[in-house]
Design a protein that fits this description.
This is WGR domain-containing protein. By secondary structure, this protein is of the alpha+beta class. The chain contains two helices and four strands. It has a four-stranded antiparallel β-sheet. Strand 3 and strand 4 form a beta hairpin. The longest helix has 13 residues. The protein starts with 5 loop residues before the first strand and ends with a helix.
């Protein structure tokens, strides 16, 4: 893993109107931890949906390429193109 690689999970929750909204972002140490955490958030009922991803390149979090490698539950359309929020 390059020093600028960042694994993480973005969760999605339902707002008061029942629409999906961005939940919490959680950094992870590797892809397996991110996948397990994303799945657990949904199966345990803490989130309506979640996406595990790798952000590669760039020195800042909002720079570089995001690669979504696992999605669980309900996520907004095109989430792999929009992560991280």
């Amino acid at each position: 893993m390059a020093s600028s690689d960042l694994y993480g999970v973005q969760t999605f929750v339902k707002d008061r109107k029942g629409k999906l909204a961005q939940g919490r972002f959680t950094p992870c140490k590797d892809a397996e931890e991110a996948r397990r955490y994303a799945e657990a958030r949904v199966t345990q009922g803490f989130a309506a949906g979640s996406a595990a991803f790798l952000r590669r390149g760039g020195g800042e979090f909002d720079e570089g390429e995001a690669i979504t490698f696992a999605v669980f539950g309900a996520v907004p359309p095109g989430v792999s193109d929009q992560l991280p929020f």
